[in-house]
Description:
Blueprint (H helix, E strand, L loop, with lengths): L27 E3 L21 E3 L29 E8 L2 E12 L6 E3 L12 E11 L5 E2 L5 E7 L14 H6 L7 H4 L12 E2 L4 E9 L4 E9 L5 E7 L1
Parallel strand pairs: 2-12
Antiparallel strand pairs: 1-5, 3-4, 4-6, 6-10, 7-9, 8-11, 11-12
Keywords: Signal
Protein name: DUF4352 domain-containing protein
Amino acid sequence: MALHFRKPVARRSSVIGALALVAVTGPLAACGSDDSGSDDGEDTSTAETTESETADASPSAEEGAASGDFKAPAWAKPTYETGKKLITIQAGDISVDVYDAGTAKAPKDGNVVDNKTKKPLIVKGDDLLFLNYVITNNGSSPVDLEEDDVEVDAKWDDWAYLGGMPGITDNELYTKFKINGGDESDMADFTKYDPDQPMPLAPGETVSYGTNFKNQPGHQLTLEVEVGDAEPVEKSVKVG
Length: 240
C-alpha cells in the first residue's frame, strides 16, 4: 500500500479515505474509493536494496498497544508503538519501523473488486492484518513531510494486481489498535496544527500511522519505502 505525506487541507472523517485506488491497470478495478489501499499502480521493481527477514506470528488486538518513548512534532498526535516489530527500513535519514499491530475480522465487504469475477477482494469476515508505521528522522536537519513525501508500499509475494493492496475503512478498529489512521491528516492534531504551515519532522522526532489489508499468514511481505526523489529501499519479511 502506497502511503503519501502531503499537506492536509481539512480534517477528514475517514481514516484512510485519501488512499484511493485511482490509477490501477490490469485485472483490478475499483468500485469505490475509501477502502482502497493504493493511489497508484507504479512498478516497484526499482528497489535499491532487497533483504529478507522472518518475524514471529502477529499478536492479537487484545494484546493491546503500548506508547513508546517517542517525541512527536508539535503538530502531530502522539506516536504509538503497537504490537510486534517486524522490520526496520532505513531510507537515507528516515527510518520506518514496521509493526504487526494484530488481526481483526473485516466488518464488511471491501469496495475493490476483481475485474473478472466482480467479487470483492475482501469479504466480510476475512482476517485483516493491521500494520503500524513509526517514522523517525535520524538526520541532523529537519525534514518537511510536505516537500519530501515518504511513501510506504506493502505487497504479499503472490499479489496478482498492479495496484496496491486494498483495506477496510473502520475508525473503531484503528482506535482499538492505537493506529493514527492511514493518512497524514489523521496524524495531525488539529487543535495545534495549521494546515497552511509545513509539516516539519525535526531530528529525533517521530510520527506514526498505519494500514490494513487481507492477512496471508506464512507469506512473504515486501515493503518499499521511498523518500522524496531518492531511490526506493525494499525489504521483505515473512509474517506469521
